[in-house]
Design a protein that fits this description.
By secondary structure, the protein is an alpha+beta fold. 28% of the residues lie in helices and 28% in strands. The longest helix is centred in the N-terminal third of the chain and has 53 residues.
């Protein structure tokens, strides 16, 4: 009886002296294939996706930078236009020497203010100079007696003026003033005595305003010198 020879695990089958086509694995070869990383094609796809994302991010940054530049330019233009408008107002108001500010419903306004609190007017220009404003203390400043209101006229820095302040029928002036001296009256008047009973309003203001000195006063021109003509372009 012939005995079938036993093959070792993984050994090839020998038939007629030739080795069978079955592969013989060396130790560790199967594990190496199973633990291999992603393929080259997958890596290239991932790189392309990252490049596209980077390009989109770069485009978004450029769009934001363009928007910021446009916003900055718009703000700069608005600021320039505002300064230009103020400059035009200064020139238009160069001959103005009387300014009035009407305050409606003054009794209600007075109820909403405490002693030492003031109501400020918009800034305005007059006499060729910008930066004037009124401050009204409906219940008086810290130094006024009870029942009195206080009125201050704020003058631009380094400016000296002559003015008469008024509130209703009460006048103070003419007097010279600057940003520190005679800038207001602590006890201007008893406010209730100056209210227009028909409208419930008061009118405060300045009259006879003259600019005595200021480094910022707008000057108007009476003579204009034009630039010489440019040289004619050469021919040939």
């Amino acid at each position: 009886m012939r005995r079938q020879p036993l093959r070792a695990a993984g050994a090839g089958v020998v038939t007629g002296g030739a080795r069978s086509p079955e592969a013989t694995l060396r130790p560790g070869e199967g594990a190496a294939e199973s633990s291999a990383g992603p393929s080259l094609e997958a890596l290239e796809q991932e790189v392309r996706a990252l490049r596209e994302a980077l390009e989109q991010e770069h485009s978004e940054i450029q769009r934001m930078e363009s928007g910021l530049a446009e916003l900055h330019m718009r703000n700069a233009c608005e600021e320039y236009l505002h300064r230009l408008e103020r400059r035009i107002q200064v020139l238009e108001n160069k001959e103005v020497d009387t300014v009035q500010w009407r305050i409606e419903n003054i009794e209600e306004v007075r109820r909403n203010y405490s002693k030492g609190q003031f109501l400020a007017s918009p800034e305005f220009s007059a006499g060729g100079l910008d930066g004037f404003s009124f401050h009204l203390y409906p219940r008086g400043d810290d130094f006024a007696e009870e029942g009195y209101c206080s009125l201050y006229f704020h003058v631009p820095r380094d400016t000296r003026i002559s003015r008469t302040l008024f509130l209703g029928r009460t006048r103070h002036g003419p007097a010279e003033a600057d940003s520190l001296k005679n800038c207001g009256i602590s006890e201007m008047c008893v406010l209730s005595n100056e209210i227009d009973k028909a409208t419930g309003s008061i009118v405060i203001g300045v009259e006879g305003l003259q600019i005595l000195s200021s480094p910022n006063i707008a000057e108007t021109r009476t003579k204009l010198t034009l630039d010489p003509p440019r040289p004619a372009p050469s021919v040939g």
